[in-house]
Amino acid sequence: MRITIRDIARNLDLSHSTVSKVLNRRLDSFISDTTRERVEKEAKKLGYRPNHAARALATGKTGLIGLGIGDFFHSYNTSVMHHVDNHLQNRGYQMLVQRFREPECAAKLLDWPLDGLITLDYPNHVKALVEASPKLLPIVSMGTYSAEITDHVELDLFVGAQQAMRHLVAQGYTRILYVVSAWGNRVGEPRRDAYFEGMNRAGLEPEYLLTASPTREMAYSTLLEFLADRPFGKRIEKTALFCFNDEIAIGCYRALMENGLRVPEDVGLVGCDDSINVQYLECPLSSVSYSIGQLCDTALDFLEARIENPALGRQKAIVTSHFVSRKSTADG
């Protein structure tokens, strides 16, 4: 016979609700550690396994939240997955992850009985999901490219990138190259807009280096090729690289080192995302920073509110960014 929550509650003389919250790992509930230990010990002794199908029938909820996200190898995306999973575990939910590529990939999430869905960037995929959803599935879009057709949390990178550009100009850099993937080099992209505003304000000539993709490997090979034709050492301008993200900045850092160029003595270097990786290089990199925790927690709070009350008005918020100066842009 299958062991149920009611069996555990009866054996321990506890309420069904208390046992349910412990077994669903609802850390937001005020239950003592002693009680949690008693419940977990009894559940293990009896061989309790959760019956998700029964819970779904009883509550109308599956406890399953989807996350639509880009490539897993990017440190920004893995940090988002980590924060979302921690938040959901603490609230008694499970996470289902779908990697986004084409909009058709997003529709695969609708094959699952989700209580709600979080998406990171990819606004066109969100639009496809809204159009394809047979019911009003709660969806919250978050990121630099959030979708305004649903609840959303926007990550504003313009302010931090603007501060980065003003810092570089103030440090006396007169040649500042924007290193960006072809996809990211478009009008309306906040980092690009901040770069061109900063260059125009300083009366400097914009110059950019395009990579095929926003990865450290591609940035490394692209800058190596660039330096072979136009080495920085033969120019008299004080030069810096303003990079689309930290992945590109790390690839550029490696290419500069292999060419005997010192950071910051020969070339200044700025990234974006302020990932843990850039803080532990031999020369820690300056970067545009923001709170991934705030981004994810706000989006998930919106989602829970939407699940509980589908009639809520549109929820929206903005997470701001700021520039963090480190050794890579200090006076050489």
Write the layout of secondary structure elements.
Layout: H1 5-12, H2 16-23, H3 33-46, H4 52-59, E1 64-69, H5 75-90, E2 94-99, H6 103-107, E3 116-120, H7 123-132, E4 139-143, E5 151-156, H8 158-170, E6 175-181, H9 190-202, E7 207-211, H10 216-229, E8 239-243, H11 246-258, E9 267-272, E10 286-289, H12 292-308, E11 316-320, E12 322-324
Parallel strand pairs: 1-2, 1-3, 3-4, 4-5, 5-11, 6-7, 6-8, 8-9, 9-10
Antiparallel strand pairs: 10-12
Summarize the structure.
By secondary structure, this protein is α/β, with parallel strands linked by helices. 42% of the residues lie in helices and 19% in strands.
Describe the overall structure.
The N and C termini lie far apart (73 Å). Helices cover 42% and strands 19% of the residues. It contains twelve helices and twelve strands. It has three domains: 5-50, 434 Repressor (Amino-terminal Domain) (Orthogonal Bundle); 64-156 and 291-321, Rossmann fold (3-Layer(aba) Sandwich), CATH 3.40.50.2300; 158-289, 3-Layer(aba) Sandwich (Rossmann fold), CATH 3.40.50. Helix 1 crosses helix 2 and helix 8 (158-170) packs parallel to helix 9. Strands 2-1-3-4-5-11 form a six-stranded parallel sheet, with helices on both faces. A six-stranded mixed sheet has the order 7-6-8-9-10-12, sandwiched between helices. With 332 residues, the chain is an alpha/beta fold.
